[in-house]
Amino acid sequence: MNKNSIFLDFSNYIIIKKILFLSQKFLIPLIIGTTGLDSLTLNLIFYISKKIPILLSYNMSIGLNILNLIFININFYLKIYNFQSFIIDIHHDQKIDSPSGTSLILFSKIKNFNKKIFSARIKSIIGNHVIYL
């Protein structure tokens, strides 16, 4: 592998550990888009990130990043007026993680205390995230 190599992982919570060890062994930067990671794996990512560059994001879309900016600007009002916030996460029944990584990101960005997340897996739906404020 050359100096411009990078690992790009969007696999699953089982394979990511092998990729982490290879990335560390060969000192190759890593971009991780895998969801459903347990706390042990997240701690491992944090540890290895001290040795090599790692970017971890459960959703790399510009739309989600714009939503993050919106929440930064409205969280003050969500708290003051005690808004109820709901995220509904619906995906196909083969999706392993529930709620999805995207829903967890959105949930973490909503800073009011009156919030809930609902998740369902339905055979005929590819993926849907709905936010109610």
TrEMBL record:
One of its GO terms (biological process) is lysine biosynthetic process via diaminopimelate. It comes from the Eukaryota. Residues 63-131 form the Dihydrodipicolinate reductase C-terminal domain. Belongs to the DapB family. Keywords: Amino-acid biosynthesis, Cytoplasm, Diaminopimelate biosynthesis, Lysine biosynthesis, Membrane, NAD, NADP, Oxidoreductase, Transmembrane, Transmembrane helix. The keyword ATP-binding does not apply. The chain crosses the membrane at residues 26-48, 54-78. Residues 3-60 form the Dihydrodipicolinate reductase N-terminal domain. The lineage of its organism: Eukaryota, Metazoa, Ecdysozoa, Arthropoda, Hexapoda. Pfam families: DapB_C (PF05173), DapB_N (PF01113). This is 4-hydroxy-tetrahydrodipicolinate reductase. GO terms for molecular function: 4-hydroxy-tetrahydrodipicolinate reductase. GO terms for cellular component: cytosol. InterPro entries: DapB_C, DapB_N, DHDPR_bac, NAD(P)-bd_dom_sf.
